[in-house]
Design goal:
By secondary structure, this protein is of the alpha/beta class. The chain has two domains: about 1-75, Ubiquitin-like (UB roll); about 80-260, Rossmann fold (3-Layer(aba) Sandwich). The chain contains eight helices and twelve strands. The protein has helices at about 20-25, 60-70, 75-80, 95-105, 135-150, 165-170, 185-195, 245-260, and strands at about 1-5, 10, 30-35, 35-40, 50-55, 85-90, 110-115, 155-160, 175-180, 200-205, 220-225, 225-230. The strands form two sheets. It has a seven-stranded mixed beta sheet with strand order 8-7-6-9-10-12-11, with helices on both faces. A five-stranded mixed beta sheet has the order 2-1-5-3-4, covered by helices on one side.
Length: about 270
């Protein structure tokens, strides 16, 4: 029967077990993953199984990194996500966290849009580092994403999005993530997307500030493929700042909605 081991097809005997295969192929592997699930139980292999054999602490060469990153995905998920096109408008606390999660998930093309530079105050919740202070957010975040997953395509545009340029900037993307700070900019972007891209998935956020219970962060469906994540109340204001923990929860809710949309789950 035919199986896949570390992304290479091979034919094995019908009664071969998982650990027998490991002992034949890579006996020093201490992480064994079958069909996206790490296991320490020996089982009989089946036609079409996908196995990854990994040695902890081993730094793989570039040709191996991609399949090792794919190893924990459910079979078929990675191929679908690689075909996805996602644009992220705003690379602050929401957008930078969304970008990191989507890069790790293997979204094929991610567009990073912002006009700002990295400042010290960004470090309390955004995915930037001290050595990136002063750099444009688009290029700083792109560098970070390339160090996480170099097999995606990252496009950047240093631009302040307005009602006049939104259509041109966001055209051609399956999913558009609204990740602005100000309510008026959020409303403008979502309205422009609904006007110009009625069939696309639009994912915004509203009410993610403070240290309130994360259970108050909900997904609000406001159109066929349009969603708002947040509690819809607690925007940033004096005495109620944007905190890394709660912002990251909301950002990952946005990212997860994008993934589910690309997989046809919503």
């Amino acid at each position: 029967m035919e199986i896949t081991v570390n992304e290479k097809k091979m034919v094995i005997d019908n009664f071969t077990t998982l650990f027998e295969l490991r002992n034949q192929i890579k006996p020093d592997a201490d992480v064994v993953i079958i069909n996206g699930y790490q296991t320490d139980t020996d089982i009989k292999l089946q036609e079409g199984d996908k196995i990854s054999l990994i040695r902890k602490g081993e730094i793989p060469d570039k040709s191996e990194i991609k399949y090792l990153m794919m190893a924990r995905h459910t079979p078929g998920v990675h191929d679908k996500l690689q075909k996805g096109f996602v644009a992220i408008a705003g690379l602050g606390g929401l957008g930078s966290n969304v970008a990191v999660s989507l890069a790790r998930m293997g979204i094929g093309t991610i567009k990073l849009i912002d006009f700002d530079i990295v400042e010290p105050s960004n470090l309390n919740r955004q995915q930037y580092f001290i050595h990136q202070i002063g750099k444009s957010k688009t290029e700083a975040l792109k560098d970070t994403l390339l160090n996480i997953n170099p097999y995606n395509t990252y496009l950047t545009e240093n631009i302040y999005i307005t009602a006049e340029n939104a259509k041109k900037t966001l055209k051609g993307y399956d999913v558009i993530i609204e990740a602005f700070d100000k309510a008026k900019n959020k409303a403008m972007l979502i309205n422009e997307c609904l006007k110009h891209f009625p069939g696309k998935c639009i994912i915004g956020a509203s009410g993610v500030a403070g240290v309130f219970d994360t259970e108050s962060l909900k997904i609000h469906k406001i159109g066929k493929n349009t969603y708002i994540v947040g509690d819809m109340v607690n925007e940033a204001r004096p005495g109620c700042g944007l905190m890394a923990t709660r912002v990251a929860v909301a950002a990952n809710m946005q990212a997860h909605l994008a993934v589910r949309y690309l997989l046809g789950e919503i």
